Amino acid sequence: MSMYAPGCPFPHTTEESEAAVPSVPAAPGVLPVGAQAPAIDWVDPAELIADPYAVYARLRTEAPIAWVPNLKRYLVTSYSGCHQVEQDQETFSANVSGATMTRALGAQPMLRKDDPEHAPDRLPVNPVLRPKSIKESWAPAFAANAEMFLDVLEDKGPDAADLNSDYAAPLASKNLRDLLGLRDVPVEAIRRWSHDFIAGTGNVLDDPAIWARCDSSQGEADAVLAELIPFYREHPDSSMISAWANSGLPASNVAANVKLTISGGMNEPQHMVTNMVWALSNHPEQRAQVLADPSWWPAVFDEAVRWRSPIGMYPRETTVDTVLDGVRIPAGSGIGVMVAAANHDAAQFGDTAADFDINRPKRPHLAFGSGVHLCAGHWAAKSAIGQIAVPKAYDRLPGLRVDTRRVESWDGWIFRGITSLPVTWG
Q1: What strand order describes the sheet that includes 35-36?
Q2: Which residues fall within 8 angstroms of residue 353, CB to CB, at 6 or more apart?
Q3: In terms of Cα–Cα distance, which of 364, 359, 367 is closest to 337?
Q4: Helix residue spans in 88-203 (DSSP H)
Q5: What is the average pLDDT score of the chain?
Q6: Which of 168, 173, 191, 194 is nearest to 408 (CA)?
Q7: InterPro entries in the record, alphabetically (predicted)?
Q8: What's the pLDDT at 195?
Q9: pLDDT band at 263 (very low <50, low <70, confident <90, very high)
Q10: CA dist list (Å): 389 to 38, 93, 386, 423
Q11: What is the DSSP code (8-state) at residue 129?
């Protein structure tokens, strides 16, 4: 489970992602009635990494469900198609073939399970992540962490500060450490574990050097959890590890899900901090609107997570021959659920779907998934980032904005975010 979204790793290339499953089995027997998916050969992974949204728009227009040989899977880019996949786990399974995630984490985590196997892993942490618990138990810690790292950002000064490296990334790491209950583990170690688990999850080319890194971090994390799990059984608190430790789950399940959360629980929240500031900097009239009336912050968060979804795609696999939005898909096929593309679908969000607009009518989006894999941590994200981290940054530095004198950078398409965001104020 990612804290904030339905997927976990943050690979930057197609080769580094579970999206690149190397084969699709032939369809047995006769397929249900439906059109054959068009084969699209113009999708360029390099173009997706640079900026995927033009590719998404073309796919939605030409082939909202398409077979893409370069990625060896069917890409679903329409809102209706992605939503249907999420609502039908019996047909579109999260337990995908060739998943390196299980190897990387040492056991199968909940993200690669369907119900009924998924529910026992998920249910114990639901109470920890509900709005009341977040407000009472975690919002004060999130606020203290934000103030701590705002000091760091401010000390860098308006000519040298980077919102990602000086604020968003360390804040997301500290929040995750507290929420999980990793106690005295250094934030830098958790960040390294996250990077190594992500690399292992994306190691479809079976690079031994990546496995060595992953195995080393897995061993370190397992050693910590071997002490923490029994500790929390004797001394329960409001943390996620405590909830799992006292759920009756085997220790291997607990450890796999903790490592899953470590692997993805930092990237998405840090990218939402930078996404929100970047969006407001590029839409000054909306920035003025929210700074004049803070009641707009929830709308800023919700629109930013729809407009530039940190999770762009996650995998599913068909269990039977099926038809999705009139297109035939064989059993055993890899599916790319392109939620970032779906979140720009005009059929769901109107003709201005590609625009950032906090005043748009509220409509459901897929940035946090849907169905049984709806992100359990979306309330934590809205609190830690949308209600605390970003509003506090503007309270401390009212003139906060992107520093156009320096170069910003983005990366990724399966998981996409700002890797460097120079900011200034005053």
Answers
A1: 35-36, 327-329, 322-324
A2: 343, 344, 345, 346
A3: 367
A4: 100-105, 118-122, 131-133, 139-156, 163, 169-180, 187-201
A5: 89
A6: 168
A7: Cyt_P450, Cyt_P450_B, Cyt_P450_CS, Cyt_P450_sf
A8: 83
A9: confident
A10: 44, 35, 7, 15
A11: G
Long-range contacts of 114-123 (CB under 8 A, 24+ apart): 114/89, 114/90, 114/372, 115/89, 115/372, 118/94, 118/372, 118/373, 119/372, 120/247, 120/249, 120/253, 121/249, 121/253, 121/257, 122/1, 122/376, 123/247
What are the Cα distances from residue 115, in Å, to 120, 241, 263, 371?
Answer: 9, 22, 22, 11
Instruction: Report which of residues 370 and 80 the model is more confident about.
Output: 80
Whether the pLDDT of residue 52 is over 90: the answer is yes
| Domain locations in the chain as residue ranges | 14-424
Q: How far apart are CA 190 and CA 176, in angstroms?
A: 9
Q: Indicate the residue type of 413.
A: W
Give the pLDDT band of residue 314 (cuts 50, 70, 90): confident
Q: What does the alpha-carbon distance between residue 118 and residue 329 come to, in Å, rounded to a whole number? A: 25
Average pLDDT over residues 93-114: 86
Complete DSSP assignment for 201-261? HT-TT--HHHHHHHHHHHHHHHHHHHHHHHHHHHS--SSHHHHHHTTT--HHHHHHHHHHH
Q: Does 31 score more than 80 pLDDT?
A: no
Structure tokens at 55: 């590719």
pLDDT value for 204? 64
Check: CB of residue 165 under 8 Å from CB of residue 264.
no
Rounded to 10°, the helix 169-180/187-201 angle is: 90
On the question of a cis peptide bond just before residue 116, with omega within 30 degrees of 0, the verdict is yes
Q: Could you report the per-residue pLDDT of 127-156, keeping only the tens digit for each?
A: 999 999 999 999 999 999 999 999 999 999
Instruction: Give the fold, CATH level 3, of 14-424.
Output: Cytochrome p450 (1.10.630)
Return the amino acid letter for 58.
R
Residue 424: φ, ψ to 5°: -140, 175
